[in-house]
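Internal tracking record. Fields below are filled automatically when a chain is submitted to the structure queue. Please do not edit lines marked as system-generated. If the sequence contains nonstandard residues, flag them in the REMARKS field before resubmitting.
Queue: standard
Priority: normal
Entity type: single polypeptide chain
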Amino acid sequence: MSEIYFDYNATTALDPAVREAMLPLLGETWGNPSSVHRVGRAARAALDDARYRLAACWKCRPSEVVFTSGGTESNNLAILGTAQILRDHRRHLVATPVEHPAVLQSVRLLVRRDGFRVTWLPVDAFGRVTVEAVEEAIRPDTALVTVMAANNEIGTLQPVAAIGTLCRGKGVLFHTDAVQVFGKQPFTDIHQFNADLVSVCAHKFHGPKGAGALFVRSPLQPGSLVIGGAQENERRGGTENLAAIVGLVEAFVRFVPTPVFVDATLREWAEQLAQAAVAVPGVVRRGHPIQRLSNTVAFTVAGTDGMALVAGLDLDGICASSGSACSAGSLEPSHVLQAIDVPPAEANALIRFSLGRGNSTAEVRWVADRLEAIFNRLRCVTRR
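SYSTEM-GENERATED OUTPUT FOLLOWS
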């Protein structure tokens, strides 16, 4: 087989129907939505239609939809924007150490630059937090709790709905980075997370790159990080990327309410790969065995490292990841595995397979049959 793509958590291919929906916004509807003449009004109509369409799918108000450039910006806006409006009264944050770097770095910036304090929640051996730990961490001066819905590296799901209920009862704002769950987990509406802020990223469910959204529960108005314009109800300056926004909405409507990642099939394939991997001495599966994304299987391979694993698999035509795509190229061990007390040498030897609709039973079997030989070959190379 020439190429097997097992990296759907990093990105997905743009769906042809989504591309078709975007094309008019790259051609005849090319105006600036802020312009008041007829060309601008046509663009504004397309933008408004996209916002109303997504709001209808989310079952929220159109004013609660903020379009961004992706998951990273959505996380930045949720955390930094909320801190900006609450810093005079509340300077305490609650977060997990297994969050995406976009969340971790936002929290650390507030600590370093603005004097915020942070309570890092304990996680178990699978990277999962408890509602009780969140309750213990909340203080009178807590501005925000942020807990991701699903971990991008090891697939562990967090009890975000219960955490959101707790936070609401205590009058504390709650944000969840839900980027990895859309299209993979059941979706009824945006309120299922019980969160005040929810981050979304289009290219995780066959939408375009450079497109994201943030749900902001009314009447919350986080401070803008991108200044110089009043777009997005003064929450994000700059002329809107209309084609990308339309692509985001088209992909969400098509592939999230009916998840594009088919749970039963992907779970079966992931288990086949996991069983083949852990049959090799020195390979340990990571992530929760049950409360996890069905398409994701992660494991550490003793005697080698993540960069070698990715390169070695690529030589055999297998596209995989050693962790977050946003940390690709880093020589540091996985911060997620370090948080669950995996020794540094093993934490630096993570490999993640994340499956999707383009995969097949034949591909899974082909890879499963070759994992032992590939791992042993890479161990020999690493020892040299």
